[in-house]
Every structure is written in structure tokens, then in C-alpha cells.
Design a protein that fits this description.
The chain is an alpha+beta fold and about 700 residues long. The chain has four domains: about 230 residues, Rhopdopsin 7-helix transmembrane proteins; about 70 residues; about 150 residues, Beta-Lactamase (2-Layer Sandwich); about 160 residues, Histidine kinase-like ATPase, C-terminal domain (Heat Shock Protein 90, 2-Layer Sandwich), CATH 3.30.565.10. The strands form three sheets. The protein has an eight-stranded antiparallel beta sheet with strand order 3-2-1-8-7-4-5-6, with helices on both faces. Strands 14-15-13-12-10-16 form a six-stranded mixed beta sheet, with helices on one face. A two-stranded antiparallel sheet has the order 9-11. A hairpin with a 4-residue loop joins β4 and β5. α2 runs antiparallel to α3, α8 crosses α10 and α11 runs antiparallel to α12.
Length: about 700
């Protein structure tokens, strides 16, 4: 039974120091201490491995025993050299007292004697003198005492600012040398090495190995700068812990199976099931993972966070390319994950009522009131810009602030940290984070990381608020543009009604005139209803249907002729369909022809031509409106024609040409203008056709001369 215990003990020791050596070997640090630490760990691992091999294979001859003794001495010397290097190079190139030199000399002499004797025994023969065996034990005791003295000097010479770095190494080597002293002092007194003490020695060395790794990772004045993935350490620690747990559970299960009664198997089965289920639940628990990460960060790394990974996780969370989570909630989640939080909410500033209102909540579970921007708490957050602990009333864990917290926030069962979102010189919002998954003591690293992340989140919030304001402004702009178009249409309708009244004095008794008047009024009423519908819609969809442009122009002809009798209209023989609703097409034709009539003198003429051009599937309908008016110069067309609210007419609004071009673009077309001063102007509107009918040649359908 003692052989099994010894094998387990030294096997664990070999594994522990091999892991420590592996962690040192992948370190990027190139300093004078790394090599001696690596050698000391490897020699210790090799020594323990050889003891393990001798126990599990007892047939190995005495040569292995002598090799074990030799490696044990080398292991002790290696750790003494580690301490000597630190004392010599890190602490002003001196040992603190002459006693250290004396014991170092004695230890060195003892080591040389023991190693020389082991080599002699290995190649020549064995010493059988009892006196030699006693001297051997005395030398081992002396080496262990020398090691303890060196440890004491290292600990005492380290200042308080760096003692936290070397204390773990001192504890580890103190335990190793102290246990050696007890083992060999007891052997010297009783003339034999105690089997139980010897078998436990390997496990004692294995237990202190993590302290050596921690000391190496913490080192500043004798830096062994480990750069190991925190994720790797986390998963490795989890696997090691799970492995140890399973070994322990297997041992208990083995003990239960020894019961010589029917209950033994039942107890063993039930125990293994409960143990396995407990392990699965612990591994799946976010709280347990948070505790493990906290332990690793506190004990294995110089800094609490791997800032590259933390920043990458933050940016990934707040970006969320899937778009399934709104930006406000993404901000809350991204900040909460830094402190392992499980809930939170964000408040954003609304200028209209000068207050912060809850914009998104994540697992907060309650209605969240707003906070006035003039509230004392909001003012403090804008001034200090630090993370505020709502329970302790401290900013960044240092400065205590006596500020009144709204009662609903102070009594909220989840509220923990208030993180202001500072952007440029303002605070567009703030985030309240709920409690973390496990107990957590915040340090300067937590507060610095939260402030930095909050600054980035504030830019996202500010951008989102700007986009919302821009969208609102665009909606108002669209409405105002539609309203301006409606006003312009009303002006045109008013002009038609005025002409009807004037012509009624001369043609009021003419049945044909009366028929045209009724048709014009009917169209005007319909147009007014359409304009009201346009105002109700924030954005018109002009491609919902197809409209026969020939029929539309024919319907509008009667109204145009009420204004002038010098108008000629040429339409194709077949219908000409355009992809678009009737309303914008009617507005385009009405504005162009109406402006042409206004620009034409009593002796002039307006010519309207409708045709199609281009091969399928790129056929276009072309509406041409030509007048013989005064025309426009190129500079006017370029600089003023399409500028809204810029007009040369005493009764105009300066919107017509601008509206026609916008409507044509919304329908997927374009507007072209040709004009010569003194000769007239031609407007052409190109619009996509909605079917593949063949092109028809223009024909003169109606012609009127005054």
C-alpha cells in the first residue's frame, strides 16, 4: 500500500514541476532569472519522475537509487542557486549578512561532497561504513538549513513594495527545505528514513509548485514575464480541478464498493451519479466560472485583465452584426460583461424635457423612471465622470461623494454601479449595472476598463441619438417639401379657377364650355384630395402601379384649353404605360404645361409630345413640353431654375421646376432642359416604361389655331 501512495505522491510532483517548466519555457521574457528557474523546475521534475519509476518498477537495480540521490542533490542546489541569483542581482549585489556567506559555503561544500560520493558509488562501489552514512545525513541536514537561511534572507531583504512578488517563492522553498530538514533530522536521530515521511515528500513538493508559478508571474524586480492565454489557463485549471474531483470521487466510490453487503453497489452507483451530476452543474454554472476566473486573475497574472481580449469582446458585443439586439441594449450588455454583470439599463438625454429617460433595460425587471438633468446625481456624474458605486457612494472606489440618490434607484434590488457615458464635454446618457454573478471586489483595473469602454459606448449612443434626430429632421423636411408642393398645386388650381371665371363671362351659355368647366372642377376636387393624401404620407411610393400616360394627358387637355387655345398635343396611337402612380405624373404634366402657358405670349404656342424610345428592356417614355416663350440663358438654368423658393414670378413660389425634377427622379427618370433666349424652352421628362409594347410613332391627334 505504501508503494502506491509513494508512486502517486512523486508522480504528482513530477507532473506539477513539468507544468511549471512548460509555462516558463513559453514565456517571452529573456532575463537572467528565467534560465535558472527553468533548470530548477526541470531537475525537480526529473528527480520525482525517477523516484516514481523506481517505485512502480522495483526490479531496477541500485544504480537508479544512486541517480535519484544525485538528482536530489542537484535539485536542492538548483533552488539555492535561484535564491542566490535573486539576492545577488536584484538586491544590490550583496547578501545581507556574513552568516549567509558562511552557510552558503557550508552548503556548497556539502553538496560537492555528496555529489562526488554519489558519482564514486555509481562507478566504483558502495560505502558500507556507518560513519559515512551519518555524515551523509548531516550534510543533507546542513543543506536544508542553508536553504532555509537563504529563504529567510530573501524574504527579509525584500522591501514592502516588492515583498508580495517574492513571498510566494519564499513560502514554497521554505516548505521544501523545511520538510527536507524534518525528514533527514529524524533519520539522523533514529538511524533510518521514515517511509511515510518519504512517501509524502513528493506530494508536499507538488503542492508548493503553483506558488512558484505565481511568484514567477508576479515578478517585477526579477521579472519572469509570463504571457499565457488567460483562456488557456482558465480551461487548464478547470480540467485539472475536474480531474482532481473525479479522482477523489473515484477513491470514495472504491471505498464504498468494499462494503461486503448488498448496499455497497447501490451506494456506489448513487454516489457516482450524484458526483457526475454535481460536476456537470458546476461546469455549466456561470457563477462558478466567474469565481474561477477571479481566482486565476488574482493569483496567476500581473494584471487582472487581458485587455486585448476584453476590448475585442466589448467591440464584438456592442457591434452585433446580426442586428437582432437594439444598439441601446447592446451597450448595456457590453458594459455588464466586463464585471460579469447579469442585468442593467441605459438612460439617454432628451433635450425636450431636459431629462434622462430609460432607453433600454436588460433583466432589470421593473419600470425605470427618468432622472432630471438638473438632478444632483446627474450633475455629479457629469462633473466627475467616474464609475459610481450606488451602495458605497464612492467614485472609482476611492472618493466618497455625499450625493442624494433617487429613492427608487437607491432601493432597487439589482442596481450596483452607475457608469456615466461621457462624450466630448457632455453626457448623452448613463448606464446602471446590476450585481455580478459572484462576489467581486473592484480594483483600479475594473474602473479604468469601465471608463474606457463607457467612453467608446458614449460615442455609439451619441451617434444613435444623432441618427434619430437626423431621421426626425428628414421626416419634417419631407413633410415641408410635400407641403410646399401642395401649395404650388393649389396655386395652379387657383389659376385654373380664375380663368374659368373670366371665360364664363363670354362662354357661360355654351354647353361645351359648361361641360369643360364641370370636368375641370371634378379634376380639381380630385387633385385636392390627392394633395391631402400626400400630406398624410411621410414618403410617397410612386412605383406601386402603372399609369397610362396617354390617357392622363388626354384628361388634362380640357383644363389646359380653358387657359389657352394655342396648344398642340401629339399622342401615340397605343397606350403608353409608365411605372408609377397617377398623382406624381399628373403633377409633372400640369406643372410643365402650366409654366409653358404662362411663359407664352398670346401669339405664341405650346407643343406637347408624348412618345417612347430605346430598345427593350430599356424603353423610356418621353414627355416633351415645348413653348415659344422668351427662353432662359444657361447661367439661369444652372444656378436658379432648380433652386427651391427662388422665382422670377410675382405670384410664384419657385418650387415648380424643383418639384418636377424630384418627382421624375423618384419615378426612376430624369428631367432635361433646352432653352434659347428669345426662341423658347423645351422640357423633356424621361420615364421608364412598364411593359414591352412596341413603340408607336407620334401622331397629331388634335390641333387648334386661334
Amino acid at each position: 500500500m505504501i508503494e502506491q501512495v509513494t508512486a502517486f505522491s512523486y508522480g504528482a510532483c513530477a507532473a506539477a514541476f513539468l507544468i511549471a517548466a512548460g509555462m516558463l519555457s513559453i514565456s517571452r521574457s529573456q532575463n537572467r532569472y528565467r534560465a535558472v528557474l527553468l533548470v530548477a523546475n526541470l531537475v525537480t521534475a526529473l528527480w520525482a519522475l525517477l523516484v516514481f519509476a523506481r517505485v512502480v518498477a522495483p526490479s531496477i537495480d541500485d544504480v537508479s537509487r544512486l541517480l535519484i540521490d544525485l538528482l536530489e542533490h542537484l535539485r536542492t542546489i538548483a533552488w539555492m542557486v535561484v535564491i542566490g541569483f535573486i539576492l545577488y542581482f536584484a538586491y544590490k549585489r550583496r547578501f545581507d549578512s556574513a552568516v549567509s556567506w558562511i552557510f552558503a559555503f557550508l552548503a556548497g561544500g556539502s553538496a560537492v561532497t555528496l555529489i562526488g560520493a554519489d558519482i564514486y558509488l555509481l562507478f566504483v562501489g558502495q560505502f558500507t561504513d556507518v560513519l559515512w552514512l551519518r555524515a551523509n545525513l548531516i550534510a543533507r541536514v546542513l543543506m536544508s538549513v542553508s536553504g532555509l537561511l537563504l529563504v529567510e534572507n530573501l524574504f527579509r531583504n525584500s522591501g514592502t513594495e516588492v515583498r508580495w512578488v517574492v513571498k510566494n517563492l519564499c513560502f514554497a522553498l521554505g516548505v521544501m527545505f523545511g520538510y527536507d530538514f524534518i525528514l533527514y533530522a529524524e533519520a539522523f536521530l533514529f538511524g533510518r528514513v521514515d517511509e511515510q515521511l518519504f512517501s509524502a515528500r513528493g506530494l508536499v513538493n507538488a503542492i508548493v509548485a503553483p506558488l512558484i508559478v505565481v511568484a514567477s508571474a508576479r515578478a517585477k524586480t526579477w521579472p519572469v514575464d509570463l504571457h499565457i492565454s488567460r483562456r488557456l489557463v482558465f480551461h487548464s485549471a478547470t480540467l485539472l480541478g475536474a480531474g482532481g474531483y473525479l479522482i477523489a470521487m473515484a477513491a470514495v466510490s472504491y471505498y464504498l464498493s468494499d462494503f461486503d453487503n448488498p448496499w455497497g453497489f447501490l451506494l456506489q452507483t448513487a454516489f457516482l451519479l450524484v458526483a457526475a451530476l454535481s460536476l456537470i452543474m458546476m461546469l455549466a454554472s456561470a457563477s462558478v466560472r466567474a469565481h474561477i476566473k477571479g481566482f486565476i486573475n488574482r493569483n496567476f497574472f500581473s494584471y487582472k485583465y487581458d485587455y486585448r481580449d476584453e476590448w475585442a469582446k466589448f467591440i464584438t458585443s456592442i457591434s452585433d452584426r446580426t442586428g437582432s439586439i437594439p444598439i441601446m441594449e447592446r451597450v448595456v450588455r457590453a458594459l455588464a460583461q466586463i464585471v460579469e454583470g447579469t442585468s442593467g439599463a441605459v438612460w439617454v438625454y432628451e433635450e425636450e424635457d431636459d431629462a434622462y429617460h430609460a432607453a433600454a433595460a436588460w433583466n432589470m425587471g421593473e419600470v425605470l423612471p427618468g432622472i432630471s438633468a438638473r438632478d444632483e446625481l446627474a450633475a455629479v456624474m457629469r462633473t466627475h465622470g467616474g464609475v459610481f458605486d450606488l451602495k458605497e457612494k464612492k467614485i472609482d472606489g476611492i472618493e466618497t461623494v455625499d450625493v442624494a440618490i433617487p429613492e427608487w434607484l437607491a432601493n432597487h434590488r439589482k442596481a450596483w454601479l452607475l457608469v456615466p457615458l461621457i462624450h466630448v464635454t457632455g453626457m448623452p446618457g448613463f448606464v446602471v449595472l446590476g450585481q455580478s454573478r459572484g462576489p467581486r471586489t473592484l480594483t483600479w483595473e475594473d474602473f479604468d476598463l469601465l471608463r474606457t469602454a463607457a467612453s467608446q459606448a458614449a460615442s455609439y449612443i451619441a451617434e444613435e441619438l444623432s441618427l434619430r434626430h437626423l431621421a426626425r429632421a428628414r421626416r419634417f423636411e419631407d413633410f415641408n417639401r410635400q407641403f410646399a408642393f401642395v401649395i404650388h398645386d393649389i396655386k395652379n388650381l387657383a389659376g385654373q379657377m380664375t380663368l374659368i371665371l373670366k371665360n364664363a363671362e363670354r362662354h357661360g351659355d355654351n354647353p361645351e364650355f359648361q361641360k369643360d368647366v364641370m370636368e375641370t372642377i371634378r379634376n380639381s376636387v380630385g387633385r385636392m384630395h390627392q394633395m391631402l393624401e400626400q400630406l398624410r404620407a411621410t414618403r410617397r411610393k410612386n412605383t406601386d402601379s402603372a399609369t397610362d400616360l396617354c390617357a392622363l394627358v388626354s384628361d388634362l387637355t380640357r383644363g389646359w384649353r380653358l387657359r389657352t387655345d394655342r396648344i398642340r398635343i401629339d399622342l401615340p396611337p397605343e397606350p403608353l404605360f409608365v411605372a408609377g402612380n397617377r398623382e406624381p405624373l399628373e403633377a409633372i404634366a400640369t406643372h410643365l404645361v402650366g409654366n409653358a402657358i404662362d411663359a407664352t405670349a398670346e401669339s405664341g404656342e405650346v407643343h406637347v409630345v408624348l412618345a417612347e424610345q430605346g430598345p427593350p428592356p430599356h424603353r423610356q417614355c418621353v414627355l416633351t413640353v415645348k413653348d415659344s416663350g422668351p427662353g432662359m440663358d444657361p447661367k439661369f438654368i444652372e444656378e436658379k431654375l432648380f433652386q427651391p423658393l427662388d422665382t422670377t414670378k410675382a405670384t410664384g413660389f419657385g418650387i415648380g421646376a424643383y418639384q418636377v425634377r424630384n418627382l421624375a427622379r423618384e419615378l426612376g427618370g430624369r428631367l432635361e432642359v433646352e432653352s434659347t433666349v428669345g426662341q423658347g424652352t423645351t422640357f423633356r421628362v424621361f420615364l421608364p416604361c412598364s411593359n414591352d409594347r412596341g413603340a408607336g410613332e407620334p401622331v397629331v391627334s388634335e390641333e387648334t389655331h386661334g
